[in-house]
Amino acid sequence: MTQRKTIIETGWNLDNSYARLPKSFFTTLNPTPVCSPKLIILNDRLAISLGLNVEHLKSNDGIAVFAGNEIPQGALPIAQAYAGHQFGHFTMLGDGRAVLLGEQITPLNDRVDIQLKGSGKTPYSRSGDGRASLGPMLREYIISEAMYTLGIPTTRSLAVVTTGEPVIRETEQPGAILTRVAASHMRVGTFQYVSKWGTVEELRALADYTLERHFPNVNNDENPYLFLLQEVIKRQAMLISKWQLVGFIHGVMNTDNMVISGETIDYGPCAFMDTYDPATVFSSIDMYGRYAYGNQPHMAAWNLSRFAETIVPLLHVDQDKAVKMAQDAISDFPKLYHCNWLEGMRAKLGIFNEELQDESLIKSLLDMMHKYGADYTNTFRALTFNKLEDMKLFGTMEFAQWNELWQSRLGRQKETKELSQELMKNSNPALIPRNHRVEEALEAAVKKGDYSVMESFLNVLSNPYAHSPKQDVYAKPPAPSSCRYRTFCGT
Ligand code: AMP
Ligand code: MG
């Protein structure tokens, strides 16, 4: 492999600060080259914001980087080591099918990880083939970009290439590589790995690096590690509340899939909920509903407790005091989460100020939605535009009574009805990437090589709060089906 083009021509401006951390944190290795890469989709806007040259990225040399066949100038590819609790069981993991090329320094001087996912075997692959297939990589592209446009912190997708090599899953599938862009890839599981197998000095090195990269505003007179714990808790409380407010189900909230930066990561079995039901689960392996919609805030708190445990040795020389500090920080999570959720729900109902009964108003709406099998997104959309037709819920006496209470609640704030509607329009998306639409786009792409369905879909998803007529058809929930929508891990 050669390093041919200069930074000016390509826009790649990579640093490798993670690779300057202790050697046990990663393994240096190149991606495994593939036989005939082809660019399927490129995120032009994201590329430009990263300072990359779009024309170069579309050229053979540019595509060779996305395929792992060329290493861009300045890159030092590594696979990161991490551990994690998977469905409650602790295990050693690591990048089994990914390499971090380096950190792109953007024109705004941000530092973001550039990672190839599906780039071949690594020492952490266990029995896996190190590869990924086209459908799931496009699925990650669609859903991560939808999350971004919905205003939810997330890793982004820069490009998907096919490799020209098949991968064997249940059937033979086209192999593909996704280029993922992330604030960083440090996971709760990264801290678990260092805490379990590293020294306290190594743990401190990881924590110091994380502080410098993500939380540089720590005051000199503060305990930096307590600050780190509190900030990570705050970011997760924000993130999970945003998931709940749009009906997003991650599906595999293992501790290795929770990043310290507070972005959503690892779009495996995730999906959006149509009909409101807190017990909704899509993942085929989540037999007991551990990661069900209604359980996500609890699982986030559980994961954060595992994070807190890892940094106890850094919190205080007196370990009893350190444990107490960690427990106090964790006990803040439910309050922080609830506060964010309540604020978001008020906005979804056009409410600006706070009244004590707001929570019971919200809860009774959700209970009715559950009872009458109402579509989550479309209920709020209908309330926003006062189009109370079509749904069984809106024909009930219970709803009529609730509506009266809601209207009088709106009347008790100084903001006009018009302002309330504006708030609702900005808080209730016209559409989400509904599962049947995602499947339709993937089927056309993977089975027929027709990417136009996905492109049109991405286009309407690019502004979910536009409420434009062209979005109407995509807002329709799926026809009732006897089969539960199922999603899969390890694809
Ligand atoms: P995930 O369920 O995607 O969060 O992945 C859990 C672990 O399995 C991580 O260590 C991944 O790198 C690894 N993994 C997933 N798929 C593969 C694969 N096809 N080959 C090697 N490792 C994999
Ligand atoms: Mg993962």
How would you describe this protein?
Strands 1, 3, 7, 8, 9, 10 and 11 form a 7-stranded antiparallel sheet that branches. Strands 2-4 form a two-stranded antiparallel sheet. It has a two-stranded antiparallel ribbon with strand order 5-6. It has 17 helices and 13 strands. It has helices at 7-10, 44-49, 54-58, 60-67, 134-149, 188-197, 200-214, 224-246, 296-315, 319-348, 358-371, 376-385, 397-411, 417-427, 435-448, 452-461, 472-475, and strands at 14-15, 26-28, 38-42, 78-80, 83-86, 89-92, 98-105, 111-117, 132-133, 156-168, 172-182, 248-249, 271-272. The protein has 3 domains: 5-182, no CATH class; 186-434 and 476-491, no CATH class; 435-475, no CATH class. The structure holds adenosine monophosphate and magnesium ion.
Largest sheet: 7 strands, antiparallel
The overall pLDDT, averaged over residues, is 96
Give the fraction of residues assigned to helices. 40-55%
Point out poorly predicted stretches.
Answer: none
Structure annotation, total helices: 17
Q: How do the SSEs run, as a string of H and E? A: HEEEHHHEEEEEEHEEHHHEEHHHHHHHHH
Q: Please compute the radius of gyration using only Cα atoms.
A: 23 Å
Proportion of residues in β-strands? 5-15%
- The coarse silhouette is globular
Distance between the termini: 28 Å
Which structural class should the secondary elements be placed in? alpha+beta
The hetero molecules present are: adenosine monophosphate, magnesium ion
Number of strands: 13
How many structurally independent domains?
A: 3
